[in-house]
Amino acid sequence: MKQTLIIKAEQVTQPDILKAIQTIIIGGGLVVFPTETVYGIGANALDKEASKKIYDVKGRPSDNPLIVHIGQIEELHLYAREVPNYAKSLIQAFWPGPLTLILKKQDIVPYTTTAGLDTVAIRLPKHETALALIQGVKLPLAAPSANLSGKPSATEFKHVFEDLNGKVDCIIDGGPSSIGIESTVLDCTKEIPTILRPGAVTQSMIERILQRPILDASTLQVEDAPKSPGMKYTHYKPKGDVTILYGPIEKVQEYVSSQVDSSIPTAVICASDYELLFPKVRVRTLGYLSQPEWIAKQLFSALREMDEWGMQRIFIHSFPEVEIGHAVMNRLLKAAGYQTITL
After folding, report:
1. Facing residues of 69 across strands?
2. Are 113 and 142 in contact (CB under 8 A)?
3. Which stretches of the chain drop beneath a pLDDT of 70?
4. Is 181 domain-assigned?
5. How many domains, in total, are found in the chain?
6. Tens digits of per-residue pLDDT, 27-67?
7. How crowded is the C-beta side of 28, counted as CA atoms within 13 Å?
8. Closest C-alpha to 301, from 309, 292, 289, 313
9. What pLDDT is recorded for position 62?
10. What is the pLDDT of residue 219?
11. Which domain CATH number covers 172?
């Protein structure tokens, strides 16, 4: 078990600390850092051996591509080519921010980073510490979510520490993530841009900028090599059995009551509006339905708490699939392994 260096976010800009992190990255090491979406486990995106380490530490399938994080818009052309005009419009509107673009890669980006694909997923994060880190080390960082593969993504330092202490070289503690779900991934290699993973930059926001409709492939089951992280494999699952319940909340309440068994630890994850409807089970609220961004921010922490509580059965009512709610349901369905009941 290696010794993991723990650093506070405000220390990153200190010359001696930044030098130590840069030495780790240049040497092929792994650094966990905060972003506005979720924590990322970063390595030199141009070092094929460093990228391999990410897959090994996470237990991540090697055909699941990594996102390359850059520190300035001007660096895009170094790692991507054939950037269409519509992608440039989106960059102007949403970068820095939670939007990842899939573009044709430059040869300098190794296939271990792109999971063997001729495309690269790339974004410019908005988080102050992430930008200071990337700009400071002067290298692009390949960085998937900082969690063991299959577990809920980490949006708090304690969850990163739980998963990766002793497995990576450095962890930067940046407090809780402000958005709480991973970036929107948009395929820009075709004439019509296509959402591969929904996030805080929503379909309507993108269409408003482009003044035309786009496609959404995030609901498809991917059998071949996925072009985006999070498309093919089970993600975000607690140890307990998760079921998504569709239907009127009264029906959800009745169903959960009928399923209560004192010998099976059971929990409900729900909107704060419904907190008092489930007195016989443990309840974890995400926020009020009128605050969908807060619900998204709380989602992964709630899923992680199910393991902390030792819950064996977890029921979650469906949320409105409007704007960021689409991304919330995308994550919840994967956490449930698409196990749903319509009432």
Report:
1. 123, 141
2. yes
3. 62, 220-234
4. yes
5. 2
6. 999 999 999 999 999 999 999 999 999 999 998 776 789 99
7. 7
8. 309
9. 65
10. 72
11. 3.90.870.10
Q: How many CA atoms are closer than 13 Å to the CA of 73, on its beta-carbon side?
A: 14
Residues 196 and 268 in one domain: no
> 52 and 200 in one domain?
yes
pLDDT tens digits for 230-272?
554 557 889 999 999 999 999 999 999 999 998 999 999 999 9
DSSP string, 28-93: T--EEE--SSS-EEEEETT-HHHHHHHHHHHT--TTSPPEEE-S-GGGHHHHEE---HHHHHHHHH
Burial class of residue 293 (count of CB atoms within 10 Å of its CB; 0-12, 13-18, 19+):
middle
pLDDT of residue 198: 97
The residue range of the domain holding 194 is 5-216
Same domain, yes or no, for 255 and 211?
no
- Is the entire prediction scored with pTM above 0.90? yes
Q: Can you give the pLDDT at residue 225? A: 46
Alpha carbon distances (Å) from 47 to 29, 92, 144, 283, 295: 10, 29, 15, 45, 37
- DSSP letters along 181-209, please? SPPEEEE-SSSS-EEEE--SS-HHHHHHH
Same domain, yes or no, for 245 and 129? no
Query: Are 19 and 134 found together in one domain?
Result: yes
Task: Decide if 227 is inside a domain.
Answer: no
